[in-house]
Amino acid sequence: MISIKDAVNLVKLNTSPLLKKATKSVEKAGGYKLFADILSPINMPPFRQSAMDGYALHRHDDLSYKLIGEVKAGDGHEPELKKGEAVRIFTGAPVPDSANAVIMQEKVVVNGKSITILEQIPLEHNIRPLGEQVKAGAIALKKNTKLTPAAIGYLLSLGITEVSVYKKPSIAIVTTGNELVEPGQDLPHGKIYESNSKMLLSALYNLKFYDVTLYTVEDNYPKTVEKLNAVINTNDLVIITGGISVGDYDFVGKALKDLDVEECFYKVKQKPGKPLFFGKKADTQIFALPGNPAAALSCFYVYVYIALQKMMNCEDVELPRITGTSISNFEKKGDRPQFLKAIYNKGKVEILEGQNSSMLQTFALSNALVFAPEDITKIKKGDTLEVIQLPI
């Protein structure tokens, strides 16, 4: 049994970036990182653009201008302004080349076919120059940039429809157990509804990992070996829930050994989630999580999350940790460090009741985990706590 710190370090050391290229449509590339620099195919803006509603002027020394027309957003015509002439213009509209300033409408008095400006304005005032954001042929976004909603919008504004990105891992979730029944079916005596696979699927989707396939296997050794061999050979990451402990019908550990999976660690001094396995075979990472739902989800956030970020070549691979002030009293049982379900709000932390590893009700209310080291036995109101913020 190893420490949490050693387990985290082993996940980091034994997980490498995928560094494989995939092509994605821009609108479906959110959350991916760019595989290469993106060069802009156009100037942005592609023309001199009005920054506001007002009047485009061909400036002269007088405050009065002859009004000769109008240009609105989307217009393709370009009036020719002589010195002392102006056109009505609107935000985003193309500024005629013969205009050299735009004055906002609040600083103009309209007199039929002429206008009077209330003050002189500098040349090029309120005009967005051609290529102000980016010039054609220049780097629009650099390699390794994570594609946020703003980045997606930016690329689409440049007319770019496809990008090369780092491939996200293909992931298999394998759930074991004869006691499991699919939700929606009748629940015979001795059975429970299976929730781990969809719970972990939801956590992965929330992190924008969508290449996920779900599998189930009963507590049968040959079938466990067959199923794990298949998913290990066809996926970048395999997550197994259940069957990793030492019961008579826990076959996962033996199966992984017989499949020549290299064990990086098995069993971590922590609560929940002591019977946690991490290993690898060739380029596939394998996590065997405890079957208890709250333990499985805790291990996902503390360990599997790190592997996912490492595979995506991210710099910050752990969930953010902050400090908060406890508004709860809590007595920690046992000598293992614990991850406690909690609610964090504006610097205050409430440790919730119902910390049992089989119970999801408390986890369903949580937005954070409090890390309680092994040397802490009691938490009191006012104590400063280490808080792991969950990505929910």
Automatic annotation (TrEMBL):
Residues 172-310 form the MoaB/Mog domain. Coiled coil: none annotated. The keyword DNA-binding does not apply. Its cofactor is Mg(2+). Its EC number is 2.10.1.1. One of its GO terms (biological process) is Mo-molybdopterin cofactor biosynthetic process. One of its GO terms (molecular function) is metal ion binding. It catalyses: adenylyl-molybdopterin + molybdate = Mo-molybdopterin + AMP + H(+). Pathway: Cofactor biosynthesis; molybdopterin biosynthesis. InterPro entries: MoaB/Mog-like_dom_sf (IPR036425), MoaB/Mog_dom (IPR001453), MoCF_biosynth_CS (IPR008284), MoeA-like (IPR038987), MoeA_C_domain_IV (IPR005111), MoeA_C_domain_IV_sf (IPR036688), MoeA_linker/N (IPR005110), MoeA_linker/N_sf (IPR036135). Keywords: Magnesium, Metal-binding, Molybdenum, Molybdenum cofactor biosynthesis, Transferase. GO terms for cellular component: cytosol. Catalyzes the insertion of molybdate into adenylated molybdopterin with the concomitant release of AMP. Belongs to the MoeA family. NCBIfam families: molyb_syn (TIGR00177). This is Molybdopterin molybdenumtransferase. It comes from Jejuia pallidilutea.
